[in-house]
């Protein structure tokens, strides 16, 4: 039951350690369904999982280490469903530019349905990678490269004009754009009050799906134009 810290008993086997790690990850994932990344604290995570904070740290070196694992997991879950979304959205008979726009719209729509992934991605470089060891950072980066390459393969299947390098640029750019746009589409209470008080300033407000679609479309058009040697 949440709020009850049970007496800690050291896991005696690797199987027991795996169960404990998974319980911590599952609890943190459930918390992200209730609150943004910025509000998830190690103290509250420890309380909900039923372990003292020092014991949670036996399995993960920091709050950020837990969240990096969840980011990797959320990204892989997204990719597992993305191929079908792209297949439905992209017309293989369309021009390169049209397919680029269709890819961008499909990516934005699928990301908009995964707010936890976007929130984690928005915190990745500025927060999550700042309080981890080199070992955890290296593991996270290896996983990130693998998922970026998987995404690049999905994109190149719809935009075969791109070579492997440019497909990877589009994949990496999409992930960076999603994180950046998410931050700007979730402004502080002070900024929201400013928009409410002065509608003229609300022109600076960005809609997530629209913003991702537009930025990814521009990036795809540029890469396609460079690949084909003409306007995409």
Automatic annotation (TrEMBL):
Domain HTH tetR-type: 18-78
Signal peptide (UniProt feature, chain positions): none
Origin superkingdom: Bacteria
Record-annotated DNA-binding residue ranges: 41-60
Keywords: DNA-binding
Entry keyword annotation includes Nucleotide-binding: no
PROSITE patterns according to UniProt: HTH_TETR_2
UniProt keyword annotation of DNA-binding present: yes
Pfam families named in the record: TetR_C_34, TetR_N
Coiled-coil stretches: none
SUPFAM superfamilies xrefs: Homeodomain-like
Protein's name in the database: TetR/AcrR family transcriptional regulator
Originating species: Streptomyces tremellae
């Amino acid at each position: 039951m949440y709020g009850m810290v049970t007496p800690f008993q050291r896991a005696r086997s690797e199987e027991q350690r795996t169960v404990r790690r998974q319980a911590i990850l599952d609890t943190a994932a459930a918390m992200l369904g209730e609150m943004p990344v910025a509000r998830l604290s190690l103290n509250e995570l420890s309380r909900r999982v039923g372990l003292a904070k020092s014991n949670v740290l036996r399995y993960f070196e920091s709050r950020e280490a837990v969240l990096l694992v969840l980011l990797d997991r959320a990204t892989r879950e997204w990719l597992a469903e993305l191929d079908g979304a792209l297949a439905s959205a992209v017309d293989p008979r369309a021009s390169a530019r049209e397919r680029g726009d269709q890819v961008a719209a499909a990516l934005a729509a699928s990301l908009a349905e995964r707010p936890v992934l976007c929130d984690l991605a928005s915190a990745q470089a500025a927060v999550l990678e700042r309080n981890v060891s080199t070992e955890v950072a290296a593991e996270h980066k290896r996983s990130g490269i693998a998922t970026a390459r998987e995404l690049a393969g999905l994109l190149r299947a719809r935009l075969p004009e791109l070579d492997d390098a440019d497909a990877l640029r589009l994949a990496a750019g999409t992930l960076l754009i999603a994180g950046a746009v998410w931050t700007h589409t979730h402004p502080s209470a002070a900024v929201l009050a400013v928009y409410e008080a002065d509608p003229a300033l609300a022109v600076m407000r960005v809609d997530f799906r629209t913003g991702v679609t537009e930025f990814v479309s521009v990036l795809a058009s540029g890469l396609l134009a460079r690949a084909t040697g003409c306007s995409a």
